[in-house]
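During the practical work, I selected for study one protein's amino acid sequence and its backbone structure tokens, as given directly below:
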Amino acid sequence: MLHSILHALEHALTDGVKLIPFLFLTYLAMEWLEHKAGDKVNSFVRKSGKIGPLAGGVLGVVPQCGFSAAASNFYAGRVITLGTLLAIYLSTSDEMLPILISSRAPLALILKILLAKAAVGVAAGFFVDFCFRKKLPEHEHIHELCEHDHCDCAKGIWKSALIHTVKIAIFILLIGFALELLFEFAGEEALAGLILNRPVLGPVLAGIVGLVPNCASSVAITELYLEGALGVGSMLAGLLVNAGVGLLVLFKVNPDKKENLRILGLLYLIGVSAGILISLAAG
């Protein structure tokens, strides 16, 4: 058993350390983009009106700090529609994109995943706005994004990128070690068979993991997919449902808790349904 544990630790460290330089460069680029374009993106979404779901779904895939948190504040202030909020939640990728880039996943694969998330987000957003048409009231107070520790707005891009890299690198090492242990003791093929070949159960379980409002959930789902333990439908279900800290912020700033629970249920239902359909199509 000790040999298996040490072997798993060696593999996790080897794979994890290789990712760190690419992870840092990716976060550095993302921080630069956030500082240069973040305010413009948020302003555009606020002013998008009826095309809000299109703007939110497309811009949601752009890697930037706290976009889902911003969307939650905008919705709590009734600046954007429910459809726009869900479009952003569904399309935002949290830690998925840095992991894929640092793992040197094929560009075509990355683009397909981003396009799928954006397409689901836009379609679901327009459908929800059509079904739940409400006139937005006058704009209320918009809470400051920098209250939330996920967005290190006050820090320079180098320091912020380094902090993000260290945090996610630790998650990757821990999750990688856990996965290697599972592969050692359960067998990679047996583990993959538990979820990979189950077009309904896989997305349902992945969606539950995706609801965890923490970086670890998107890291785990992406790593499981890259390791071959999750199919594409299950992976997309988990990542569609995963809205980063957006849901936490929504429950904090939107006083209607029943409405927040309905939004949570809608997000899960849409993400898992899309994952099931993709799993069936891929199978």
Observations:
- DSSP finds 13 helices and no strands in the chain.
- The two ends are 37 Å apart (CA to CA).
